[in-house]
Amino acid sequence: MPSGVDEVYVLSQGELSALPLRPMRSGLFGKSLEDALQYILEQHPAVIPGSQIDPAGEDPPRFALLRREMPVGGWSLDHLYVDQFGVLTLVETKLLQNPESRRDVVGQIIEYAANAKSEWASGKARQYASEFWSKRGKDLDEVLQDVFPELDLVRFWDEVESNLEESRLRLIIAADSIRPEVRRMIEYLNTEMENAEVLGLELRVYGEEDGLVILAPRIVGQTQAIVDRRKGSSNAIIWNESKLRESFGQIDEESANRLIQLLDWSVQNDCFLESRAQLPSFGLAGKTGERIIGVPSTGKLYLFFELGKYSGGSAERDQFVNALKRLDLISPQIVPSEVTSGRNFSRSLSEMTEETFEGMLGILQSYCQTRVNQTRT
């Protein structure tokens, strides 16, 4: 029997209606099951739920597609993604209808991982990805900046190479339903492997394609204990105030001055949050104490839109975003309810005028104070 629920419920204007689980053996969007899943994953990388991969993370992995049909070991991997930390994510989509296919897909993705360093290092992964996007009339760097606007791309590709050298990879087997025996194999491998992680992605579909369709992704094989262990063994750094000040001394003076100004402000207003990352960064906490703004050393600030980070829910979040829009710091096209994170400010810190920078601090004063406000009340 497939795991998970057989229907989900939609509550609209006081009326409850059920959307049944849609059997995927007949496919979706006019495609076979495997083709339909591959299409969804290519067009919508956000269905890979980073918040389930790193449940307690301040900045869960987000994914950009590097290439479909990625050459490796004489074969072709279905999808190669990368997250904002430069960790390559290999996704293989398979039908898991019989014992042979279940064993084969696990062995296949492990074989891909075993060949990744020798075949993708020294800039080859970047080259393959550039070729893929060039054929689609797009520049790879622009694709990455659209998903990860906070990135310093030079450092980013250095991190990709470093992670490859350490075999720090993420392997995902995607299917509409993952059988218990496959789940056991995935859980065992994910527990035993030191640097690489092996996960299952079960993508269930509810509703009919001529009406409302709900995609419900679920990660298999992950536990918080495994996440914590890998974080502890990674080369990520805890960026406290002193380390940040030291790192800012190594970048251009104009960018460093603005970063130090914002760092000073966050400390004075008691909303500074350390970051665990490979590159210098810190966060600004909202009234709940949760990170609502990320500040990388590039100075390209980015927002977190999840409602749980805002004590006043959607009303407070939307007011915050609209205030930043009035300063022309956030694109007017951004709809907060349609994104979760990764949308950068339209200008970096060094590109802001003094008036705009001060205006931004005034807005932050209303939304980023945490313990100071709590102490006063």
Overview of this protein structure:
This protein is of the alpha+beta class and 377 residues long. It has two domains: 7-233, no CATH class; 237-376. 40% of the residues lie in helices and 24% in strands. The chain has 13 helices and 15 strands. The protein has helices at 33-43, 50-53, 99-120, 124-135, 140-147, 153-165, 180-192, 224-233, 241-248, 253-268, 313-326, 354-367, 371-376, and strands at 7-12, 15-20, 63-72, 75-83, 88-93, 169-175, 197-207, 213-220, 237-239, 272-273, 275-277, 281-285, 291-296, 302-304, 341-344. The longest helix is centred in the N-terminal third of the chain and has 22 residues, at 99-120. The radius of gyration is 22 Å and the shape is globular. Mean pLDDT is 84; it is low at 372-377.
